[in-house]
């Protein structure tokens, strides 16, 4: 099947010309909205490489259990709008590795890509709004290179509190500990995701909207929940690519980083080595830029009053392939 020019966004309004009552002597026309649902899909072979030789006939797609007819198909590369989130509440060693890898991260973007840069810990700080200016990006990364971990970044680790403790409160031997208080740890990972998704919603519809996050995946006391942040990602058609640091094997399985990436069609990469982290940057941006985009017009009845979440499932006919895509979208009235 011939490849088609990629449509503008994941859910696009189309206009159909249908007959309706008209003025005398005029031909009747009425405009009726039909939504084209677009689903970016990543397919990898057993060796981990992107499978780039599939056709539309290799895919099947269903929405809410109903098989859909693929009407548009593309694998044309698209520019990226990326929100880069750096967790500065990780341990000093992990933060040093992340900072040292920033030049490689900058090199992973093409000239027509645009990025915004944030740091988060006890709060979220936008260091740079979306820009393709390489000098501005470099200056922002230099500023980020001077960031230091907060004292709360060590909370929860086996060596985070020196000396003896009582009920989790450190004490000095021979000194009365009564009356001491300890502030609860704070790391607003979900708030950072929420803000990035909101900011990405304003970017051009012909770009791939992604979040690239380096973090240990811990969250404490965010104003937004995981569910509300994920809703924003899906509503604004944003994919998450996460780079996990300072995490055990057990933590990786249960990490919110994994949950965000699976739900949005991105990927999580966990590593403690700087060179492996840099490889993850390059692979993630390549993957985000080169995805199959399947388009269809939903056969499900449009909701009457408020948006309804529609679950999507994509399969390929070839065996041994890993298929990743967002778990669904919100169909609007």
Q: What's this model, at a glance?
A:
The protein is an alpha+beta fold. It is 24% helix and 32% strand. A hairpin with a 3-residue loop joins β7 (114-120) and β8 (124-131).
Provide structural commentary.
The chain has 333 residues and is an alpha+beta fold. The chain has 2 domains: 100 residues; 175 residues, Rossmann fold (3-Layer(aba) Sandwich). It is built from 8 helices and 17 strands. A 6-stranded mixed beta sheet has the order 8-7-6-11-12-13, sandwiched between helices. Strands 1, 2, 5, 14 and 16 form a 5-stranded antiparallel beta sheet that branches. A 4-stranded antiparallel beta sheet has the order 4-3-15-17, with no helix packed on it. It is globular and about 50 Å long. The two termini are 33 Å apart. The N terminus is likely disordered.
Task: Give the count of helical stretches.
Answer: 8
Percentage of residues assigned to helices:
10-25%
**Percentage of residues in strands:** 25-35%
CATH class group of the largest domain: Alpha Beta
Could you give the distance between the termini? 33 Å
Per CATH, the architecture of the largest domain is 3-Layer(aba) Sandwich
Question: What fold name stands as the CATH topology of the largest domain?
Answer: Rossmann fold
Mean pLDDT: 84
Briefly note the structural class of the backbone.
alpha+beta
- Spatial strand sequence of the major β-sheet: 8-7-6-11-12-13
